[in-house]
Amino acid sequence: MSLESVPEAALTGSLRDYRSPIGSDLVGRTAPFYQWQNLRRQHSVWPYARSTATAPTARCQARTDSGSPFTGINFASQDYLSLSSHPEIKQAAIEAIQTYGVHSAGSAALLGNTANSIALENDLSDFVDGREIVLYPTGWAAGFGAVQGFVRPNDYVVLDVLAHSCLQEGARAATQNIHHHGHLNLEGLTRKLERIRANDTENGILVVTESLFSMHSDTPDIGAMRAICDQYKATLLVDCAHDLGSIGDDGRGHLGLQNMFGAADIIIGSFSKTFASNGGFIAVKDRATAEYLRYYSATHTFSNALSPVQAATISKALQIVRSDEGRTLRRKLMDNILYLRARMQEAGLEVLGDPSPIVPVRVGTEALGRFASRELAAKGGIANLVEYPAVPQGGARFRFQVMAAHSREDIEEVVRVLEQAMKSADLEYRASYESV
């Protein structure tokens, strides 16, 4: 494909442009988005909604959303300890099917719990210092349900500007009193809380952060946030979706590394990154709070419970996470993380954030990112391109997601093909815009 063949419309624009369509035809007004999406698809610069054709291992076969097959080194799947194909976990799933079938067949508020989900609550509670556990069908549902479940219209939510979509959407569903502070900016957080409390000392304030931010691979000072929350009588929620199980010698993530499990009033998490299954949870300090959530957090109350297969899978994954094998896998994972970051930096690539299973590599403009993504896939590298509005405009990046099962050879090869892809993309980008 010649570089001049990619029209400018396929290299510009973003999802935000189509978020608020106008017109009386609610269905018909979606067409402009599809036209833009399809233009990108036709020129192989739409790297989304791809599917795996094999297990999501370190090397896999996949298909584009048009069905075209491709293969490569997989840094796009979230399976940090490489547990999704672990033989003991697959066996646990098989045994759950044989005993319980495949479906929970009800809400957890009714008859949807199973022996497996109750066992998972107990096992997870032991892992997070005896907290009470409420399970959710997805991590997104847990984040949304935590904010919506606790916050009422007169309350306030103060979020890090980069807090996950589920937390932002939960806030919008709960109250109009939403405030944001700069990313990891404790002074900004303090100013927001001070202004709120200067006018309202009666209603609640929920402060929302993440223990590992997924687009930047960085971490807040949880102890400092706890002190600020205490000063202004605010409640602290910490989302540990990406680091629980995968970071720290004991697998307890940054809350564990900072010795701050007790600092968070509300902990939420996801099982889909390290624990080999969809699902999420909220961990709180007492049963009264947990029981309230079971009936007032809509994404728990009005969703089917985790299937017995999911619960068995997660429980077995948690058992491995807490074992010597889990410790070995985390060390292998961190070795891979450090090696990948070092090799990318040696290649002149801009690596963002701190060492974690997420390795963001800055590309630049959205157009350059689209060219680079096309080139990377063609050369046998699989990584997710993240564009505005998920990241700042002009800050497109690849999000490499590292697994314990990646080999040194995988890392060497993906760095080599990424370096080549970036050079090719730069030439295509320059030629495309110089010809305009």
Entry summary:
The chain has helices spanning about 10, 30-40, 85-100, 115-125, 140-150, 165-175, 185-200, 220-230, 255, 285-295, 300, 310-320, 325-345, 365-380, 410-435; strands at about 50, 60-65, 70-75, 130-135, 155-160, 180, 205-210, 235-240, 265-270, 280-285, 350, 360-365, 380, 385, 395-400.
* Rg estimate, integer Å: 22 Å
* CATH homologous superfamily title of the largest domain: Type I PLP-dependent aspartate aminotransferase-like (Major domain)
Largest sheet: 7 strands, mixed
How would the global form be characterised?
globular
Within the CATH hierarchy, at the fold level, what is the topology of the largest domain?
Aspartate Aminotransferase, domain 2
Average pLDDT for all residues: 96
From the helix content, strand content and strand pairing, which structural class follows? Answer: alpha/beta
Number of E-state strands: 15
Distance between the termini: 18 Å
Number of domains in the coordinates?
2
Helical residue percent band = 40-55%
Low-confidence stretches: none
Count of individual helical segments:
15
**Percentage beta strand:** 15-25%
The helix/strand order is HHEEEHHEHEHEHEHEHEEHHHHEEHEEEH
Keywords: Aminotransferase, Transferase
Cofactor: pyridoxal 5'-phosphate
Protein name: Aminotransferase class I/II-fold pyridoxal phosphate-dependent enzyme
Domain Aminotransferase class I/classII large: 73-418
